[in-house]
RNA sequence: GCGAUUGUAGCUCAGUUGGUUAGAGUACCGGAUUGUGGUUCCGUGGGUCGUCGGUUCGAAUCCGACCUGUCGCCCCA
């Protein structure tokens, strides 16, 4: 006997969980569609050459690699190769790590068929060989929207609007944090460490988590001069409204062209957003850096208020993701919503709508051969009215059938034995109140339909 | 990849310095009750004590490795 189990960091989803997950996907998808985005899907596996080197050293380690089919041993020197070298000999495929890189590959490969700007959405699982923790899995879903082939900041603004609409639908209060890589470049330039941009980004990103002192320590470890770290001090304590922060940055960036460009982009985004009736708070946070190093412009991160769960969404603009696949001048901007994080937030805040938990509205009790034929007629009438309903497939004891209805949270049970058949009616039982009445099927249909 | 911690019935957990045949609650199934569930009572079944190895006369209990879950670090949705 094999003990049933699934790989580390993966999960089964029970019907009750799937109903809630589908609610999340459906809600997000509805907003994407309304904003004129089109769906695509890409394969679970990509060639490793597509994936490797796009996510930094750490990312390469977290890629799941797929062993070659056939005799992968042939002609490979197992003795004298390091694990990494061996991997490249015996694996040429890997599971996708995110949806953005496969999207870039898709765009280049299908550029002739696509009309740009291309607005696509994609909701599929991704895999990371990470160590599982709370809210972190090895297989999880991302819901991505991207606009590629347009540099307009209208796109950034639209992504903020989409974010706002999605989380308004969920009833989750959020803060949309924004920043711009050009501002971070400006900071690096101003403190005289322009070539250390990546190190500055990874360190500064942790400010709210580990505090200013530890960030300075890390910057030191990463090779920044004490002088430069001292100059960064003012950037750690920007406060006030977005306008106030921008005004302060204007002064600091007086001699940094790229820094000023970042500021003007933020201003333009905010100006567009102001026309879009966005309810969520939009906060300029210059310590927001995000690990992925392909971002070149705007950066987004969405945090739910009043919960301890980390970011539930993140994204940004990338100017040259398609370059490595041979297509230049194809700037894009996108954002990704983490389905399982949103699930946890909805759960914690008790925000799942209660009406989705009873997908089956009525159960016909099976009394036997003759009675089930009569029940089938009623069942048909309800289904034609779009009411999800079923007939218990066996003549089991009534108590057992009732327990079944209870376990599935079915709100109505319908019974018909010899008496009901003679009168051409059905007994409708409301499982919440326990009340039951003899009615004809049209009346039953109306009563159930009224609860939908 | 590094560190800490966890694992006993489908689920939640007892189990004495290592000592007979490993228990309870709950769920399931059957009955009390052949047209009534979410509240009763009785009964049946269900365990390679995570896996493999070691110490011992004897291991659920002690030791090691691995696997799984959880929590930090790294990184990230």
List the helices and strands and how they pair.
Elements: H1 15-34, E1 38-39, E2 45-47, H2 48-51, H3 56-61, E3 65-67, H4 83-90, E4 91-95, H5 100-109, E5 118-127, E6 139-148, H6 154-170, E7 174-180, H7 181-190, H8 197-204, H9 207-221, H10 226-236, H11 242-252, H12 257-274, E8 281-284, E9 298-304, E10 313-318, E11 332-338, H13 339-348, E12 362-364, H14 369-384, E13 389-391, H15 398-407, E14 412-415, H16 418-423, E15 426-430, E16 436-439, H17 441-450
Parallel strand pairs: 1-5, 7-8, 12-13, 12-14
Antiparallel strand pairs: 2-4, 3-4, 5-6, 6-11, 7-9, 9-10, 10-11, 14-15, 15-16
The protein binds one RNA strand of 77 nucleotides through helix 3, strand 6, strand 11, helix 13 and helix 15.
List keywords for this structure.
single chain, 452 residues, alpha+beta, eight-stranded mixed sheet, five-stranded mixed sheet, 17 helices, 16 strands, 42% helix, 18% strand, elongated, RNA-binding
Describe what you observe in this structure.
The protein is α+β, with helices and mostly antiparallel strands. The chain has an eight-stranded mixed beta sheet. Strands 13-12-14-15-16 form a five-stranded mixed beta sheet. Strand 12, helix 14 and strand 13 form a beta-alpha-beta unit. Helix 1 crosses helix 13. The radius of gyration is 28 Å and the shape is elongated. The two termini are 46 Å apart. The relative contact order is 0.11. The mean pLDDT is 90. The protein binds one RNA strand of 77 nucleotides through helix 3, strand 6, strand 11, helix 13 and helix 15.
């Amino acid at each position: 006997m094999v003990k049933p189990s699934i790989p580390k960091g993966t999960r089964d989803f029970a019907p009750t969980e799937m109903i809630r997950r589908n609610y999340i996907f459906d809600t997000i998808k509805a907003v994407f569609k309304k904003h004129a985005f089109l769906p695509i899907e890409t394969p679970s596996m990509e060639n490793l050459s597509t994936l490797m080197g796009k996510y930094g050293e750490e990312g390469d380690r977290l890629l799941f690699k797929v062993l070659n089919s056939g005799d992968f041993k042939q002609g490979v020197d197992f003795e004298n190769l390091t694990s990494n070298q061996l991997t490249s000999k015996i694996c040429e495929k890997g599971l996708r790590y995110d949806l953005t890189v496969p999207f870039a590959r898709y765009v280049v490969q299908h550029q002739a068929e696509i009309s740009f700007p291309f607005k696509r959405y994609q909701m599929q699982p991704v895999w990371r060989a990470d160590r599982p923790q709370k809210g972190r899995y090895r297989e999880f879903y991302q819901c991505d929207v991207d606009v590629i082939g347009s540099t307009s900041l209208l796109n950034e603004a639209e992504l903020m609007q989409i974010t706002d609409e999605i989380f308004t639908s969920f009833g989750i209060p959020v803060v949309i944090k924004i920043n711009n890589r050009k501002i971070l470049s400006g900071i690096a330039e101003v403190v005289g460490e322009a070539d250390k941009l990546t190190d500055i980004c990874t360190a500064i990103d942790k400010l709210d988590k580990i505090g200013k002192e530890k960030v300075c320590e890390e910057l030191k470890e990463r090779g920044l001069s004490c002088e430069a770290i001292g100059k960064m001090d003012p950037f750690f304590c920007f406060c006030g409204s977005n306008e106030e922060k921008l005004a302060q940055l204007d002064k600091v960036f007086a001699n940094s062209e790229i820094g000023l460009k970042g500021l003007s982009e933020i201003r333009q985004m905010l100006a567009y957003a102001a026309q879009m009736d966005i309810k969520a708070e939009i906060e300029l946070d210059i310590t927001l850096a995000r690990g992925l190093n392909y971002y070149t412009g705007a950066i987004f991160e969405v945090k739910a208020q009043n919960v301890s769960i980390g970011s539930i969404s993140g994204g940004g603009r990338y100017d040259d993701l398609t370059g490595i696949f041979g297509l230049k001048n194809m700037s894009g901007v996108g954002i990704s919503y983490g389905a399982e994080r949103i699930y946890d937030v909805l759960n914690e805040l008790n925000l799942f709508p209660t009406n989705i938990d009873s997908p089956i509205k009525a159960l016909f009790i099976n009394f036997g051969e003759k009675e089930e034929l009569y029940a089938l007629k009623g069942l048909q009438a309800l289904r034609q009215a779009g009411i999800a309903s079923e007939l218990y497939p066996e003549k089991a004891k009534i108590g057992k059938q009732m327990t079944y209805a209870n376990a599935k949270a079915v709100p109505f049970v319908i019974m018909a034995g010899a008496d009901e058949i003679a009168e051409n009616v059905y007994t409708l039982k409301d499982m919440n109140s326990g009340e039951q009445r003899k009615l004809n099927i049209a009346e039953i249909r109306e009563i159930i339909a009224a609860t939908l």
